[in-house]
Amino acid sequence: MAAVLAAGDVVHVSGDLGVGKTVFVRGACRALGVTGPVTSPTYTVGNLYRTAGVPVAHLDLYRSAGVTVEEAADLEPYFDGTICFVEWPDAGAGMLPPPRLLVDLRV
Fold it and tell me: CB of 62 within 8 A of CB of 87?
């Protein structure tokens, strides 16, 4: 999957709690050239990873009841020229850029 992604692409990653969303994103980050630790941004909302190529962003909206216009503005840098993975994307419905890919993980 990582081979088809380019700057500006957004990937929504959905699934129940504990299904492996962050593990999936970690694997994608490795394939995209992230060499450092890839951790869940549940409490920080977003992580940005530099690579030799396109930067990779990882958002987790689990703790959001719904992204407001102001919060969407705060998230914009994570979408600017990156490949961005968004866990729990439903919280950002109507406020996030449209996804290129939808990933729904199930046990």
Answer: yes
State how far Cα 21 lies from the chain centre.
10
User: Rounded to an integer, what distance in angstroms lies between the CA atom of residue 48 and that of residue 79?
Assistant: 10
**What sign results for the dihedral spanned by CA atoms 66, 95, 73, 25?**
positive
Give the integer Cα–Cα distance in Å for 92 and 31: 26
3-state SS, one letter per residue, for the chain: CHHHCCCCCEEEEECCCCCCHHHHHHHHHHHCCCCCCCCCCCCCCEEEECCCCCCEEEEECCCCCCCCHHHHHHHHHHHCCCEEEEECHHHHCCCCCCCCEEEECCC
Which tens digit of pLDDT belongs to each residue from 80-107? Answer: 999 999 999 999 999 999 999 999 999 8
pLDDT for 28 beyond 90: yes
Cα dihedral sign for 87, 92, 17, 11? Answer: negative
Predicted structure pTM score: 0.94
